# Entry
Amino acid sequence: MIVRILGEGQYRLDDEAFATADEIDDRVQAAAEAGDDAAFQAALTELVDAIQRLGAPLPVDDLEGSDAIVPGHGTTLDEARELLSSEGLIPN
# Structure
């Protein structure tokens, strides 16, 4: 799976990294649904950091499409609502 972090690049996630990101994404979604901005910020930061830590960065000139788009560090809950779906940021 390829995940784009807005403003920060694309990362290829293997199955194990995807499972970790998907688990964190569930917390992002729960915080968003509860309207808990602090919990959302914490979970989003954890998600972005995990994708960057566990994923393999793609070259900037790689034009491969993204399977998921995740807002970058510092994105507010209101700003992220446009990207959230019923499955969270990362589709299952």
Q: What stands out?
A: The chain has one domain: 2-80. The chain has a mean pLDDT of 89. The CA atoms of residues 7 and 72 lie 6 Å apart.
